[in-house]
């Protein structure tokens, strides 16, 4: 059983080597599955999509931290002390 294809666009490694820029343009900003014998070996993710993924992961981590800290004792701080 092969690996699932997690992209709408796929290209063989051989075709990618011939013209990487064309593969990126053809995907129109979406991830590209890099295939080896019709099995995904890697994914080429455009910079904007990668930045969005990283931002989402950062948000998930911040939510985890907030939930972890809920219920902790509050500390009163004066603005003058800062």
Automatic annotation (TrEMBL):
Q: Which Pfam families match?
A: PhdYeFM_antitox
* Reported function: Antitoxin component of a type II toxin-antitoxin (TA) system.
UniProt record similarity statement: Belongs to the phD/YefM antitoxin family.
- The name of this protein is Antitoxin
Q: Which organism is it from?
A: Sphingopyxis lindanitolerans
In the record, what lineage is assigned to the organism producing the protein?
Bacteria, Pseudomonadati, Pseudomonadota, Alphaproteobacteria, Sphingomonadales
